[in-house]
Design brief:
The complex is a heterodimer of chains A (about 220) and B (about 450). Chain A has about 220 residues and is α/β, with parallel strands linked by helices. Chain A is built from 8 helices and 12 strands. In chain A, helix 1 links the parallel strand 1 and strand 2. Chain B contains 8 helices and 15 strands.
Chain lengths: ~220, ~450
């Protein structure tokens, strides 16, 4: 799962980034309103965690502009403003959820998972693909009921492909999803992850589309 | 002790004054009446004696024998006091005369007179027991005309009574009127008490009276002034609490996230990293709370009014901040004017040190490592001046007012300031009647804060 984190407080941002990364999410962290708007325009996020008090442009304004531009990414507002009127204003500006500081990390993660479900029209946190089962809550993968230990990026890659069976993903899409914008990606890193997944699960789980990228065929 | 009632004092005082006036009027009336009556009656007595003497002298001399007694008609004795009848007046019994020959024998007397002379036979007025007597030598005879003294007393008493009677009738009227006027005059006071009593404890709106008086107006004005001050102090406290609650949310959220991350860490290095970040968050929270308290304390109480040498306060501050400045490799220079008089501020050393500390702390936070911070202490016409210049990024002109607001941090600025340091500076400066100016540092680089105090008289 790839998330956009918009938070200007260094310490809190670092904490959320840690928590999300450990929950096997790809996190892109920006620290100002204009940067958040630019990131949203670029797209490719499964969910956005948005602080409101931001330098440059208030979070609510960022949200309004993104929605006005047709951006439908699920947004969770994370704010110190806890009055009912402020929550209502946040939700009315286009947020899907609202969490006040200080919050519980588990709750934040659960709400982020809920946002993903809504995005994909899914009712639960499990992606099933034939005999492969990927549990986003437990961060586990099973094959024929047998647990398969995966590295963080392998998990992220599998999730990305299983979330849209039959849809071919380009190398660039997948690399961005795995490494974000600032990662120095080795040219064959993606191929290594695909190779490992085929080895740990079964060779046919991911099909190579030559010259374009990869796809998980519908089971 | 029960407070004295204004109403009772006014009423009691008025009654006392009225009674005194009444007494004086009665006494003056009585006295004046008595004097006048004496004069009038004496003159009449003398005239009567003279007329009698003259008339008697025209009588042919009589052989000695019983004196002639001029008696009153019998009913006169029985007529009631004060009533004139067809035969005379009852008071005639109170008037008497005697005609006495040279040998002291009584020749003629009124029925009311005793058979012996009233008084020694010497000319002039005399008073014998209850009688006022005028003795006249008329030829060979003595004439004595007399009158009862109490007639006069009665007259002057009546005169005095006539003088004070309207006053006696007037007193209850005056008191009634006074009571009503006082009721009217004191009504706003009663209203005020009622308004205060009926007030909700939370209501601090000014008190409005339907009718005010010159006496109650200052009380009302001061009371409303106090209500307004309490109101604004309360609003400030509420704002402070709300701001504090809001401002603590982010650092607390950071602490919680890092704590949970540490608990859940998959490896020792991960746990360590989370704990270290948590410690940094704690440091920041502690400083934020300290600054909140410093601002609250600075605002809560007016400073003392001692004569504080500015240098002392600055040295106190430097002692606290120097380690942090040294830690970032920032040099500090203090410039004073050796020839000028020592800058002195009228105020409180601790608060002034707090002001200087926050200015230095601000410089230490935003000045780049290795740069220098310059402190200047000066005195102009007895007014002390402190300026702190740094070589940091400076503050844009449009933000130079906002940076003094509580919790305001320049967006995207480095450092984890509480956003309160300059608010504390402004608060303490204001309490000392000082102004804070914010401009560019030396050579247009960095920021320079200049605090100008009023002359320390």
């Amino acid at each position: 799962m790839r998330l956009l984190l918009v938070e200007d407080d260094e310490l809190l941002g670092a904490g959320i980034e840690d928590a999300l990364t450990r929950a096997r999410c790809g996190v892109e962290w920006v620290r100002s309103g204009p940067l958040a708007l630019a990131a949203l325009e670029h797209g490719g996020f499964d969910a956005v965690v948005l602080d409101l008090g931001l330098p440059g442009m208030d979070g609510l304004e960022v949200l309004r502009r993104a929605r006005a531009a047709g951006n439908a990414a699920p947004v969770l507002i994370l704010s110190a403003r806890d009055a009912v009127a402020q929550r209502v204003a946040g939700l009315d500006a286009g947020a899907d959820d609202y969490l006040t500081k200080p919050f519980d990390v588990d709750e934040l993660l659960a709400r982020v998972r809920a946002l993903r479900r809504r995005l994909h029209g899914a009712a639960h946190n499990v992606l099933e693909h034939g005999r492969v089962r990927l549990d986003l809550g437990a961060l586990s993968v099973t094959h024929d009921g047998r647990p398969v230990p995966l590295q963080r990026r392998e998990f992220m890659l599998l999730q990305k492909l299983l979330a849209a069976p039959g849809q071919v993903m380009t190398r660039a899409q997948l690399e961005e999803s795995l490494y974000g914008w600032d990662g120095n990606v080795e040219s064959n890193a993606l191929d290594v992850h695909v190779h490992n997944l085929r080895k740990k699960l079964y060779p046919g789980v991911i099909r190579t589309v030559r010259g374009i990228g990869y796809v998980a065929d519908p089971a | 002790m029960k407070p004295r009632s204004t109403r009772a004092v006014l009423l009691g005082g008025s009654i006392a004054v009225l009674l005194a006036v009444l007494g004086a009027a009665a006494w003056i009336g009585y006295d004046a009446g008595e004097d006048e009556a004496d004069e009038l009656f004496d003159a009449r007595l003398a005239t009567s004696a003279r007329v009698l003497g003259a008339l008697y002298a025209t009588q042919p001399p009589r052989a000695a024998g019983a004196p002639i007694v001029v008696s009153f008609p019998a009913p006169l004795e029985e007529t009631r006091h004060d009533e004139a009848g067809p035969l005379g007046h009852h008071y005639e019994t109170k008037i008497a005369f005697q005609v006495i020959d040279a040998q002291g024998r009584l020749l003629m007397r009124s029925a009311s007179a005793p058979p012996a002379p009233y008084a020694p036979l010497a000319p002039g007025f005399s008073t014998q027991r209850d009688w006022r007597v005028f003795t006249l030598r008329s030829g060979e005879h003595w004439v004595q005309a007399a009158e009862r003294d109490d007639v006069r007393g009665e007259l002057s008493g009546k005169l005095a009574l006539a003088a004070v009677a309207p006053l006696i009738v007037g007193i209850p009227l005056v008191l009634l009127l006074l009571t009503l006027l006082m009721e009217y005059g004191l009504a706003p006071l009663a209203h005020l008490a009622q308004r205060i009593a009926q007030r909700e404890p939370a209501s601090l709106a000014p008190i409005v009276l339907p009718r005010s008086t010159a006496e109650i107006e200052p009380v009302l004005k001061e009371l409303n002034g106090l209500l307004e001050r309490v109101q604004s102090a309360l609003a400030r406290e509420r704002r402070f609490t709300a701001d504090a609650a809001h401002e603590l949310r982010t650092p607390l959220a950071a602490l919680k996230v890092h704590a949970q991350n540490a608990v859940r860490a998959g490896s020792e290095p991960e746990r360590r990293a989370s704990l270290e970040r948590m410690l940094a968050g704690l440091e920041r929270s502690i400083r934020l709370v300290e600054q909140m308290l410093a601002l609250s304390r600075a605002a809560a109480r007016a400073p003392a009014a001692e004569r504080v040498p500015l240098q002392q306060a600055v040295e106190d501050a430097l002692e606290d901040v120097l380690p942090a400045l040294k830690g970032r490799g920032i040099r500090v220079s203090v410039a004073t004017e050796p020839s000028a008089p020592e800058p002195v501020v009228r105020g409180e050393r601790d608060k002034l040190a707090c002001l200087a500390r926050n200015l230095l702390d601000n410089a230490a936070r935003y000045a780049p490592p290795g740069s220098s911070v310059r402190l200047e202490l000066a005195s102009r016409d007895g007014a002390a001046r402190l300026s702190v210049s740094d070589q940091g990024p400076g503050i844009a002109p449009e933000l130079r007012e906002r940076v003094f607001e509580s919790y305001y941090r320049i967006p995207g600025a480095a450092g984890e300031g509480s956003g309160l340091g300059l608010a504390i500076v402004r608060e303490i400066a204001a309490q000392h009647g000082a102004t804070v100016e914010l401009g560019e540092g030396d050579g247009g680089r960095g920021a320079r804060f200049t605090v100008t105090f009023p002359p320390a008289a």
